[in-house]
Specification:
The structure holds two protein chains of two kinds.
Chain A lengths: L2 E4 L1 E4 L12 E4 L1 E7 L4 E8 L7 E3 H6 L9 E4 L7 E13 L4 E11 L7 E2 L8 E6 L4 E6 L7
Parallel strand pairs in A: 5-10, 6-9
Antiparallel strand pairs in A: 1-12, 2-3, 4-5, 4-8, 7-8, 8-9, 11-12
Chain B lengths: L12 H10 L2 H4 L6 E5 L5 E5 L2 H10 L7 E5 L9
Antiparallel strand pairs in B: 1-2, 1-3
């Protein structure tokens, strides 16, 4: 079994030069639920093999009742301004394609960095799956691997 | 079992995805470059803002529980995201 998601298509008013003139950008965006001590909150997030961590905005932590006061802190960097603090805590993540339902514990980072999308990066997410990013059919497959700690 | 739907969340991801796909692209295009909050059913957009942080504040101002929305981002079509 594997979770299967079609890439989302984001329409563009002008042809995308780098994609042969098609008028949309496909992106592997999925809706994931983040669960904490007092509740859960669903978010659209980008499956991102280039991201070290799984990251959400700090207000997600507030929404699910996580206190980050004593959370371990590191710093984010990438394209753009660097140095935003990122605070780590353990949550549960839930992801489904309507056929397979996955729920696992994960260490994720919370930040106030102006992220376009939350990222589902290696730590907390992709480390637990064998992934296939199929550019031809614009579909991503996530099959749980031997490290997967959830149900 | 990994095939049994969750029953302890208000959010139904299958329903949300089904409805979100039916949302007209031209309406979504109005939010290009903006952060948006869908209702849990994926049938309408209940708030929008320039950043995710501002979206959270906007939801609070409107008296909407952020846990009862699905926040997302509508990429600017003239921007390449790396």
């Amino acid at each position: 079994m594997a979770l299967r998601f079609n890439y989302r298509h984001y329409q563009t008013p002008h042809p995308v030069v780098a994609l042969g003139g098609q008028t949309f950008r496909p992106r592997p965006v999925v809706t994931i639920a983040v669960l904490g001590p007092t509740g859960s909150v669903p978010k659209d997030a980008l499956l991102d093999t280039g991201s070290d961590d799984t990251t959400f905005l700090e207000n997600v932590a507030i929404s699910i009742g996580l206190d980050l006061t004593h959370a371990p802190v590191r710093y984010l960097t990438g394209i753009g301004p660097a140095g935003y603090p990122i605070r780590y805590a353990q949550v549960r993540l839930r992801l489904t394609d309507g056929v397979e339902y996955r729920d696992w514990p994960a260490w994720v980072g919370f930040t106030d960095a102006p992220l376009p999308f939350p990222t589902l990066g290696f730590a907390g997410c992709l480390q637990f799956f064998s992934e296939g990013f199929h550019g031809d059919r614009q579909e991503v497959e996530l099959a749980v691997n031997s490290l997967y700690p959830g149900t | 079992m990994a095939t049994e739907p969750w029953t302890d969340m208000a959010f139904n991801p299958v329903l949300f995805e089904r409805n979100r796909r039916l949302f007209p692209d031209e309406q979504l295009a109005k939010y290009s470059g903006r952060h948006i909050a869908w209702n849990l059913e994926g049938t309408c957009i209940v708030a929008e803002a320039a950043t995710g942080k501002e979206l959270y504040e906007r939801l609070k101002e409107l008296g909407i529980d952020p846990c009862l929305t699905v926040s997302s981002f509508v990429p600017d079509p003239n921007t390449s995201y790396i």
